[in-house]
Amino acid sequence: MRIIAFLAGLLSSAAAAQTYPSHPVKLIVPFPAGSATDQVARLVGAELQAALKQPFVVENKAGAQGAIAAAEVAKAAPDGYTLMLTTNTPHAANPSLFRKLTYDPVKDFTPITRYGTTSFMLMVPPQFPAKNLKEFLADVRGKAGKLSAGYGSSGSQVSLAMLKQLGKLDFVEVPYKGIPQAITDTMGGSLQFTFVDMANALAQAKGGKLRGLAVTSAKRSSLAPELPAIAEELPGYEIIAWFALVGPAKLPEPIVQRLHEVNMKALAKPEVKEKFALVGTDVAPLGPAELGRFIQAEVAHWAKLVRLAGIEPE
Questions:
Q1: pLDDT digits (tens, 9 = 90+) for 41-66
Q2: Which one of 28, 35, 174, 306 has the lowest number of neighbouring Cβ atoms within 10 Å?
Q3: Count of CB atoms within 10 A of residue 301's CB?
């Protein structure tokens, strides 16, 4: 009887996958509209919608470093109609940034596809006195405790904390719900610098609203080759972020494979790779099993980064 029930379950989930999706799918984004995560979600949502002939509706649920969105998806029905465009923040860093989480980034989710990786750019207003990274470090050291910097994700938070630690700097750190708000206050002058995801950083630099000084990747980025890596002045400095699609735990395997296959076909298109480059992201796909192992490794990696940065969990 157990074998018959098991086979019946397999057949019903396979049948569900063949008709999936039969109505609109919610794509939950853990950061505000305009963030890099939001831009990636709208890009992949459009590709999924075109291939699967149903709307993929982006819903921004910002707050608590993505924990609010992650908790909602973790509790959703595992039917493929609530998915999450996640990042290293809710799925790797948060276990080390918060004393208590209402979700488990590994046990409560089904990994589907990793899309790509990105880094951050250290940015200042155009009038900031330092013209390069070396001058910036000297300027901040000379104004100990007098300057303010904002962060709106774990990547930008750890980027600031590592800068403080490795650069032996003293400045005030100000939290935001997302990076776009930190950008606004840096342009407005209430913050003196911030770390911006590459998608927004390239746009701000092009518009002349903010000026880039360095990047968080271990080496210079092909997207902004004129800027040094912070590691050139502070050896050992490296922060990389990533974007992936996940669903609630126990998502049927046929639905996972259907979504992943559509993603892989989209990521193989030159025009899609170009769109990812425009939002500051290098396409670097991983499948469901690989992504699952990657997330487990990233939880440990970000725990190490948070310790190195000297951040106390909230």
A1: 999 999 999 999 999 999 999 999 99
A2: 174
A3: 16
